[in-house]
Amino acid sequence: MNTGALDGIRVLELGTLISGPFAGRLLGDMGADVIKIELPSNPDPLRTWGQAELDGHHFFWTVHARNKKAITLDLRAERGRELFLELVERSDIIVENFRPGTLEKWNLGYDVLHDRNKGIILVRVSGYGQTGPEAAKAGYASVAEAASGLRHMNG
Q: Could you report the per-residue pLDDT of 32-68, keeping only the tens digit for each?
């Protein structure tokens, strides 16, 4: 495991695809103890992205999974939520990149997390912010590139 400026900090990484795992990866690179949590029935699609692979292991995944431990918890189920909250009690930071309202739908909003750990920091990564007229939209790189005109410029 890496040591660095964030040695001794525990991060719980939720979410999938690039933004949440990228943030978790950076924190792990700086020495944080990062625990990636995936749904048992729906692992992070990054596990199978990219064409480069060896013996069924995709290289893109190894980049985004480095310096992390991975576990499965069903946050939609009561037992999964309770186990997650036990982890929250012993953690410092939660990084999530779900659409706004997802944690609240699972009864895991900031108020619930803060009740279990007064010092918890919740980092929410979303394409259009947590509030406002576009908040419910999914934020993917390709959408941002298209909306900004970058896709047109780079083909």
A: 999 999 999 888 888 877 778 888 777 878 888 899 9
Show Cβ contacts of residue 123 under 8 Å, excluding neighbours closer than 6 positions. Answer: 23, 93, 94, 95, 96
- For 62, the token pair is 């190894």
Phi, psi of 39 (to 5 degrees): -65, 140
Quote the pTM value. 0.88
Nearest to 28 by CA among 47, 46, 9: 9
Place of tokens 């048992």: 40
Backbone angles phi, psi at 91, to 5 degrees: -125, 165
- CB hemisphere CA count around 133 (13 angstroms): 0
Residue with tokens 């980092």: 123
- Please name the CATH architecture into which domain 10-124 falls: 3-Layer(aba) Sandwich (3.40)
Count other Cβ atoms within 10 Å, centred on residue 110: 14
DSSP lists the bridge partners of residue 69 as 35
**Residue pair 7/28 in contact by the 8 Å Cβ criterion:** no
The full set of domain ranges for the chain reads: 10-124
Residue 141: CB atoms within 10 Å: 13
The answer to whether 97 touches 126, Cβ cutoff 8 Å, is yes
8 Å CB contact between 59 and 84: no
